[in-house]
Amino acid sequence: MFQNFDQTTDFSRSAGRVRQLRAGFGEAGVDGFIVPRADEHQGEYIPPSAARLEWLTGFSGSAGVAVVLAERAVILVDGRYTLQVRSEVDLAVFEPVSSVDTSLADFLKAAAPGRRIGFDPWLHTVSEMRALTDAIEAVGGQLVALQANPIDRIWNERPAPPKARAVVHPERFAGRPAEDKLADLVGRIGEAKADAALLTDPASIAWAFNIRGADVPHTPLMLAFAILRAEGRPTLFVDPDKLDVEIRARLAALCDLASPDDFEAALKREATGRAIGLDPQLGAARLANIVAAAGGRLVDMPDPARLPRAIKNAGEIAGSRAAHRRDGAAVASFLAWLDRQPPGSVTEIGAAERLEALRAEYGERDGHPLKDISFDTIAGSGPNGAIVHYRVNRGSDRPLGEGELFLLDSGAQYEDGTTDVTRTVPIGGPSAEMRMKFTLVLKGMIAIATARFPKGTRGVDLDPLARIALWKAGCDYAHGTGHGVGSYLAVHEGPQSISRRGMAVLEAGMILSNEPGYYREGAFGIRIENLILVEPASPIAGGDLPMHSFETLTFAPIDRRLIEPTLMSREEVDWVDAYHAEVRLSLTPLMSAEDRSWLEAATRPVGIR
Fold first, then answer.
1. pLDDT single digits (tens) 475-504
2. Are 472 and 323 in the same domain?
3. Residues above pLDDT 90, as percent of the chain
4. CATH code, domain carrying 147
5. Does one domain contain both 355 and 453?
6. How far is residue 151 from each of residues 20, 57, 172, measured CA to CA in Å?
7. Which of 81, 276, 378, 557 is a plausible cystine mate for 77, CB 3.0–4.6 Å?
8. With contact defined as beta carbons under 8 Å apart, do 238 and 166 qualify?
9. What pTM did the predictor assign?
10. Which residue intervals of 272-408 are DSSP H helices?
11. What is the residue range of 244's domain?
């Protein structure tokens, strides 16, 4: 099993740890300290050795930040974690604050006027520190960069940094040789008028050098840094223990190799009197400080690999289609199996285990072994389904009960593609309210799937399409509609998204999720998710402009028992019927006779009961 169901969060020692942290404020010369969920690479995916926020607070979510002052401690989280945070932290120690309503900058302005607030410059981006500095200095305060993180001083049982072996990502899956990718990136450095650029995002390094690793959970990343030069070979800073003879030889043909321990000194030499490109939204503030101290000039430039990594090439697109067909068969076989189980006989953990086993089985059968799941499966029955990023453990596990909804959000990592799919199913007969809310969510998902949009359209422009049916009913959901997805990389990838913050232009070749939802606290959650591919803009008969569209990559039945056809237009019903016909055609050859019979019934036209 790739998923561990042990309960990892524990806030029982938070009060003592906060006291220890505060005890060091005087020596450090600060009145408070900021604890983000981040590592030196500023990614969403961090190793256990960097899980400082969880160690201090008990909160296990993928985004959040705590601020500990002498008299008060808060934890700021977004709408995905409003319910989760209250169950995972000691509310007598940490006060949850909505980061949607109150940003970290706003909180510091209100709570820390005239104070010195410490931070670890490795754990905050350049852009973030610019905004926080402006905010706190406006009220007479000061941000103090600490040489050592005070959490590390008191975290006696801190795990060792990861040392997983790296592997070459075959060109048949990568779609392009690393030599070509690196040459393109060098061109982008020249366009930015920089002498060199820093790659700090492990996903960009994995993509550019065609390598993969296992340093963080469920995402095939090798933690490393790189310096790319407008002239001369790049240097990759990676722990030598992660490289065997084969990959060392492969990388040596592309770049110079050095230890991460040498990175700061090497950057200081590189920056002396030169222009260094760094993505201010991804690069650590510590790197900007090194460049400035060396007399260099920091050039704000996007991570040169980020956009080309997001725009999938033909090989990556073909791999994603193959991975989704295989993965869809596993998901459909799971749904067929679940339908045969009596209500109350399967638990959330049992469901997650069964689905992972089927993914492994289908992967082996197809000659593409399951490398990992792409994130911890969200298997929420009844009220647990209302917790957007619920992670089942042995303490929270509950049966899938009669009359409840079961929300299952899961994904897989195969060498040819990364998947992410959510289905919501009724256990027994659904209520009229469940059917109504599910159909409103489905209408939003169809609106995105069928959208046509001109060149230059951003995710923020499409996001309302997924919400309008819910809005008309006085409902909404507190997460984005869609995130970018990598190619055997991170299941959450930027810059593309469909959300209120989705400012990146959607370009042909980008893969995103399409996942509106609805959540009623204490009762149920609904989410339907497919992955979609942005297709090249094409003419529309009688139209004036070519328009982009989406290809749906995911193949898995949408539960017809939850669809209320009277709330849908003819076009929406036709879309579901056409989608189900494609699901049936694609998956039937891969499935057993028993499961094929189930699939035939599950994909009948909506109007047939």
1. 999 999 999 999 999 999 999 999 999 999
2. yes
3. 95
4. 3.40.350.10
5. yes
6. 9, 12, 44
7. 81
8. yes
9. 0.95
10. 285-293, 306-310, 314-339, 348-365
11. 167-302
